[in-house]
Design goal:
The complex is a heterodimer of chains A (111) and B (118).
Chain A: E1 9-12, E2 18-23, E3 35-40, E4 47-50, E5 64-69, E6 72-77, E7 86-93, E8 100-102, E9 106-110
Chain B: E1 3-7, E2 11-12, E3 18-25, E4 35-40, E5 47-52, E6 58-60, E7 68-73, E8 78-83, E9 92-99, E10 105-108, E11 112-116
Classes of the chains: A mainly beta (111), B mainly beta (118).
Chain lengths: 111, 118
């Protein structure tokens, strides 16, 4: 059982927008700005897409945006492209002894 | 460009110890960042294993803590992981990572598959 809750799958057509949610608690997502999102293509290492809730590392497309409300963080991908098809994971710092929590991952299918 | 390169055994027998080394290049392991390991069982999600600072301060996943030891060798600019009494449940791709200053994993190694089997 994953500590952060993500939908198992989402889908969208090219050009559309999709949003992936990530729900935690006040001890992790809701309590800190340290929420990050990762993209993972099959057979590859995850890639950091968002950090500090909504900041993008250099080189990440501005089609990727994110936000947080209460205990739920969200990743939005606009102008969907075939290359966006991947697994997406959220992560949060936590005040518990676990230190870092991951969501179970969301498989994005571009129809 | 920061690069992390994992070196692992590939295959480990049940009840034995898994030893993994991660060589860091493009940055000093003493640079002030935290470093760590993440694993991913085949077809499953990411699991945090542990985090270490160059001073030797460690944070371990409570579910692995009794079997886990992480260390850094600043002279070789590498970190090491030892996981004892392994079972098939420890079969996974093991990644080495660097944390930015806000607990995001900004650099990842390519990962190394470790299979636990007799």
């Amino acid at each position: 059982q994953s500590a952060l809750t993500q939908p198992a799958s989402v889908s969208g057509s090219p050009g559309q927008s999709i949003t992936i949610s990530c729900t935690g608690t006040s001890s992790d997502v809701g309590g800190y700005k340290y929420v990050s999102w990762y993209q993972q293509h099959p057979g590859k290492a995850p890639k950091l897409m968002i950090y500090d809730v909504s900041d993008r590392p250099s080189g990440v497309s501005n089609r990727f945006s994110a936000s947080k409300s209460g205990n739920t963080a969200s990743l939005t991908i606009s102008g969907l492209q075939a290359a966006d098809e991947a697994d997406y994971y959220c992560s949060s710092y936590t005040s518990s002894s676990t230190l870092v929590l991951f969501g179970g991952g969301t498989k994005l299918t571009v129809l | 460009q920061v690069q992390l390169q994992e070196s692992g055994p590939g295959l480990v027998k049940p009840s034995e110890t898994l030893s993994l080394t991660c060589a860091v290049s493009g940055d000093s392991i003493s640079s002030g960042y935290y470093w760590g390991c993440i694993r991913q069982p085949p077809g499953k999600g990411l699991e945090w294993i542990g985090t270490i600072y160059h001073s030797g301060t460690t944070y371990y996943n409570p579910s692995l803590k009794s079997r886990l030891t992480m260390s850094v060798d600043t002279s070789k600019n590498q970190l090491s992981l030892r996981l004892g009494s392994v079972t098939a449940a420890d079969t996974a791709v093991y990644y080495c990572v660097r944390y930015n200053n806000n607990w995001a994993l900004d650099y990842w190694g390519q990962g190394t598959l470790v299979t636990v089997s007799s």
